[in-house]
TrEMBL record:
Keywords (A to Z) from UniProt: ATP-binding, Ligase, Magnesium, Nucleotide-binding
Protein family membership: Belongs to the glutamine synthetase family.
Pfam families: Gln-synt_C (PF00120)
GO terms, biological process: glutamine biosynthetic process; polyamine catabolic process
Names of required cofactors: Mg(2+)
Source organism superkingdom: Bacteria
One Gene Ontology term of the molecular function aspect: ATP binding
Protein name per its UniProtKB record: L-glutamine synthetase
Domain GS catalytic: 117-452
Length: 452
């Protein structure tokens, strides 16, 4: 540990870093932690945070007391957060030379905290490692640029581009539409290069000022860290250019939602061989079992893919998002697409996750579903040819309430994720939904106020 901290200390001193943002991810994906002078950070060799931040909702509230005290120490004790020297990133928008360091969380006996999203992903990756397997993932992040708006009752609007005009209509894959925001994305790419993020392509998606950034394939934990950093970076770059960037799953009425597509495959740790292909290039049994596991368990763990009430607006009819866990080759109308590729690159693309999902938890869940299929030798359904939106055999839960009930009852996943995590996550999401239900919407005011 001391050698690793010495390396981190040298890295910070070489770059004359004066401040360190020490952060962890909560269940929602919000970065929580402390900002510390570099000298203090190095002296303390980490930080302490209350365990309770891992049961905090997106609104800043907490779960009900009976669950809170069943899962946490009644004394509201601290957890110990240790820096990961492989998760250190510069903060190029900061005025002072600043670095952000992602931490792992432990109790005072040194045991990993069970509610930590990063620990959950590490646990799933260990399941694979114990079998001699290594997952490879390549996430794709969709998001919208919008006008800045201080009133949440006002609908979001497309921002002005270089032409001085807001985008209208759908401009999928348009180069000119993407170039409307060249100055912003030049900063994004410059900052991401400084941070060492493995960005690949920029695409204009279907919605007005809706974009997609693709990451190069790699190791799941490192990419989850990168997504966490990228989302902060994207928001900061947008603010610099007087617009906003949102990763809400469905921010604009009657426009496509924003997904986090996850390409995933599994290789042999020793040989690097893609286990999804046989020697003759055909689909392997492990590949088919992986898909079978995703088909069976994604509907049971859907709140990890669609964590908010807004997430489920992506799954409404005619929204261009898949609404089931059917699979098919080169088929974007199903939840599990198998892109055409050489045998060494065979993979499945999970198209169900929203851009609002916690990157650690959604990668853990997607890989765990596949793992359970592989070890349980689950057979997938027949692949879909043609349009798959209307297929109803493998449809998803249609509300967050129904999805949470199914997740709570999934004992097979609880065996791997742990009872404490399952209870805590469901409780946080239920608390958020209770807050949501207390808010009177503009639809209710518009159609019910003077009519009923």
């Amino acid at each position: 540990m001391s050698t690793k901290l010495d390396q981190l200390s040298s890295w910070l001193k070489e770059r004359k870093i004066t401040e360190v943002e020490c952060l962890i991810s909560d269940l929602t994906g919000i970065a929580r932690g402390k900002i510390s002078p570099t000298n203090k950070f190095l002296d303390e060799k980490g930080m302490r945070l209350p365990e309770s931040v891992l049961l905090q909702t997106v609104t800043g509230d907490y779960v009900e007391d009976d669950i809170y005290y069943a899962l946490l120490d009644e004394a509201d004790i601290d957890m110990f957060c240790r820096p990961d020297e492989n998760a250190v990133f510069l903060v190029p928008w900061a005025i002072e030379p600043t670095a952000m360091v992602i931490h792992d969380t432990f109790d005072k006996q040194g045991n990993p905290i069970e509610l930590s999203p990063r620990n959950i992903l590490k646990n799933v990756l260990k399941l694979y490692a114990d079998k001699g397997w290594k997952p490879i993932v390549a996430p794709e992040m969709e998001f919208y640029l919008t006008k800045r708006c201080s009133d949440p009752d006002f609908p979001l609007e497309a921002p002005m581009g270089r032409s001085g005009r807001p985008e209208v209509g759908r401009q999928s894959f348009s180069i000119d539409a993407a170039n409307e925001f060249d100055p912003l994305f030049e900063d994004v790419y410059d900052w991401c290069e400084i941070q060492g993020l493995d960005l690949d392509t920029l695409i204009h998606e279907d919605g007005p000022a809706q974009m997609e950034i693709n990451f190069r394939h790699g190791e799941a934990l490192h990419l989850a860290d990168q997504i966490t950093v990228f989302k902060r970076t994207m928001r900061e770059a947008a603010l610099k250019h007087d617009v906003a960037a949102t990763f809400m799953a469905k921010p604009i009425t009657d426009q496509p939602g924003s997904a986090m597509h996850i390409h995933q495959s599994v290789v042999d740790i020793k040989t690097g061989q893609n286990l999804f292909s046989n020697a003759d290039g055909s689909m392997s049994e492990l590949f088919l079992h992986h898909i079978g596991g995703m088909q069976k368990y994604i509907p049971e763990l859907l709140p990890l893919f669609a964590p908010n009430v807004n997430s489920f607006r992506r799954f409404l009819p005619d929204t261009s998002a898949p609404v089931n866990v059917e699979w098919g080759e080169e088929n974007r109308t199903v939840g599990l697409r198998v892109p055409e590729a050489l045998p060494d690159n065979r993979r499945v693309e999970n198209r169900l996750a929203g851009a609002d999902a916690n990157p650690y938890l959604v990668l853990a869940a997607s890989l765990l579903c596949g793992y359970m299929g592989m070890v349980g030798q689950l057979e997938p359904g027949a692949p879909v040819k043609g349009r798959g939106y209307e297929r109803r055999n493998l449809r998803l839960p249609i509300t967050i309430e129904h999805a949470l009930e199914r997740m709570e009852a999934c004992k097979a996943a609880e065996e791997y994720l742990g009872e404490k995590f399952m209870r805590g996550y469901v409780a946080v999401k239920r608390a958020e939904h209770e807050n949501y239900k207390r808010v009177i919407s503009s639809w209710e005011r518009e159609f019910l106020l003077l009519s009923v």
